[in-house]
Each structure stands twice: as C-alpha cells, then as structure tokens.
Amino acid sequence: MITIKALNEARVRLHNTVHVTPVLTSRTLDEQTSASVYIKSEHLQKTGSFKIRGATNCVMIAKDQGARHLVAASSGNHGQAVAFVARELGIPATIVIPENANAAKEEAIRNYGAEVVHVGTTSSERLQHAEQLVEQLNATFIPPYDDEAVMAGQGTVGLEILSQVHDPEVVIVPIGGGGLISGISTAIKHINPKIKVIGVEPENASDTLKSRKAGQRITIDRADTIADGEHQRQVEMTFPIIEEHVDEIITVSEEEIREAFIFYLSRMKQVVEPSGSVTLAALRSGKVTHHGGNVVVVASGGNLDLRAIKRFVEQKELPCSGSSFCLDV
Description:
It contains 13 helices and 10 strands. A 6-stranded mixed β-sheet has the order 1-2-10-7-8-9, sandwiched between helices. By secondary structure, the protein is an alpha/beta fold. The protein starts with a helix and ends in a 14-residue tail after the last helix.
C-alpha cells in the first residue's frame, strides 16, 4: 500500500519535471449539474496526460538503482511518458504498444526517441512481450499502474486538487489500470476522508465494478470502447486500494462518453480524449450523487488523433449552426 510519505516524496521528486495543472470551470456546466464543477486538467500536462507523473517517479528511482535500458507496455499515454522521461535522463527505451495503437500516441513515442514494438491488441499480450524484452535487453520494466512508485506519482494529482479546490464534496476519477485512482484516493482519504471519491469506467470495460460486485478480481481482456486508455487490466496491487478508498464505481455508455468529449471541445475549447472524458460523462448524465458543493472532475489526458475528432463529431450528427460547429480535418 502507498503512504502519504511516499506521495510527498514523489511530489518533491517531480517538482522540476511536471506541471501543476490548472483547474478549469464552466458556468454552463455548473448550471447543467447544479454544482460548482472544477476540471483538473491533466490533458494539459507534459506529454498530454497524468502518466508523466508516475513514469517520472518510477524512472528516477530506477535510474538511481542503476537502470540502463527501460521497457514499458502501453496503449499509448504511459509509453509517451516513459519515452519522454527516458530521453530527458539519457536512457534508451523500448515501448511495446498494440497493433491498433492510436496513431498520434505512437508518433509521439517515436518523436521522444524510443523504439516502438507492436504486439497484439490486449494488455496481457503487451505485458508478456515486455517481460521477454526485459530479459533480452537486461532492461528495467516500468509498469503502467501496478507499482507503488507509479501510484505515488499519480497520487500527486490528489495533493494538488486539495490545494487548489476548497473543501471538495466529490472527486471523480477515471479507472483504467487503477494507478491514478489508487494514488488520488490515497491522498484524499488520508487528508480528508469525508470527501467522496468516485471511479468511472466505460460500460464496455467495467471490470473493476464487476470485480467489486464479485468480491474478487475479474479481467475483461478485450473491451470495445472509444476510451482506449481504459483497456488496461491486471490490477493485482491497485484493486485492494480501490476497494479500501473508493466510495463508488459508476459506468458510462459510449454515447455518454462521446457527448462529454464534444462538450469539452465545443463549449470549453478543450481537447480531452474519451478516456479522460468518462468522468464528465458520469457527472453530466446525472449518475453522480452530490449536494451542490464543489465537484472535481479529473480530465486525465488529451492525446487524440485529429481524425478521431472528426469521427466523433460526425457520429453525433451535429448541425453547423447554433452552439454546434463544423470540423474539416
């Protein structure tokens, strides 16, 4: 289990590397939800997602322990983060990504100087191949979520939320592999256990909710959802933390995710990828119980292929008038 001491140490370690991301507000959103809503904007973070926090914390520790080559398995955002930190520290990196990886995320990984290897379409396939590369290259594996140093790094988001938003009533966090919500919930529950922490998953990738109901971990290896960052599984370390600190888990439909994505783009002028939009989807759909106080929504990332933006907009059949818009990519 991660501790507040580990979170504070991570915050110091990350001080000169990551941004303290802003919280954004929207009067329209407040009116729609009858709450004071604050968007914790990790889509504006370096490398475009919160993943830089955990990756930096883990890689810095690994370097101190003598790491000479890094290997990561990722659907995109974690791979970008590891590639970025590896370049900054002068360590070669190899990133294992799915065959159907997001094109923008793959390009970013390559631009950061890492070698890219395509393997399968599932998390288990990527992790298995990454283990083989670690042996072949005598490398150090940087886990995407199931690691104390990674979770401590992600938990710095929670520390920032508590310093930026006065007396939050609810904090809503996406669940993929569980590293982000494990870190955030640990920070919040240790400092102010009265704050409600809610996790959100796509209906089509709701293994954490199913696991909670079953009382044991259940894995969905293949998930058909536009929230590609929520395909991450195998949560041996994160699941017990989620069980201890997360008050409720909510699922959202593909249409609700798409509508939240379009709200960010059209009303707030923010590009938040579908995986980062699930939290707003849960709030806007009325599934989050609150009493009109301060509600924090974590927008976890903004790495998206521009062609996907056009596809999401077209699927909504938005007219080119009024509050909607046309997009030509």
